[in-house]
Here is the input.
Amino acid sequence: MKGKLIVIEGLDGSGKATQTQKLYETLKADNRNVMKVSFPDYESNSSALVKMYLSGEFGTDPDSVNPYAASSFYAVDRFASYAKNWKKFYLSGGIVIADRYTTSNAVHQCAKLPQEKWKDFIEWLFSYEYELLGIPVPCCTVYLRVDPKISQELLNIRYNGSQDKKDIHEADVGYLRRSRQAADFCAKNLGWNTVECIRDGEMRSVEDISCDINKLIESVIK
Ligand SMILES: Nc1ncnc2c1ncn2[C@@H]1O[C@H](COP(=O)(O)OP(=O)(O)OP(=O)(O)O)[C@@H](O)[C@H]1O
Ligand SMILES: [Mg+2]
Here is the structure.
């Protein structure tokens, strides 16, 4: 009896970790068999290449690593996490909530390609990770939609205004803008569930957003 994989996706600083934790607490309080995972898995050696990439060892411009190479760094980290930490749990019927997943490769690596190449890239990506590597397909992807300007402000608060703590994705505003276009494209074309996190130019409260997500997930897990 296979379990369920729920993915919380969104741009940098959109509230993924916050909402993953909230959903985890909600399901736990409902006595569900649930665990949460987060990608990249920075605790594990399997994220070594992701760390090298994000810290700029291959170049400080995100475009210095092509989308297929960068996707591979993240994909093998997910394979390792699945094999070591949650395959057994998932295959025995557990609910897994993931803060980022293969879907993050779709968002962040499409941003390096012209839009006419997005569809082919996503087809390659999903076939690589879900079919060839064999990691699970999400049953539901929640897309936390924010205005990059506002999520950047939240990140600035987190980093106390210090730019040099940002990784190469976070530090590149143009890249972030293209990532938002890619994320909107994915949400529209891949059946993601969009949760609008901005209202009247401001971030909605954590509770408000969490309420929307709980309603969505109720119908998914029944
Ligand atoms: N609805 C909200 N309103 C205001 N602040 C929020 C909200 N949700 C999250 N935050 C704050 O914004 C920052 C980013 O949130 P969080 O770490 O959950 O986002 P993230 O999507 O996981 O970020 P990253 O992409 O960098 O991993 C944190 O400091 C968090 O406390
Ligand atoms: Mg996070």
Q: What stands out?
A: Residues 57 and 141 are 31 Å apart (CA to CA). The longest helix spans residues 67-91.
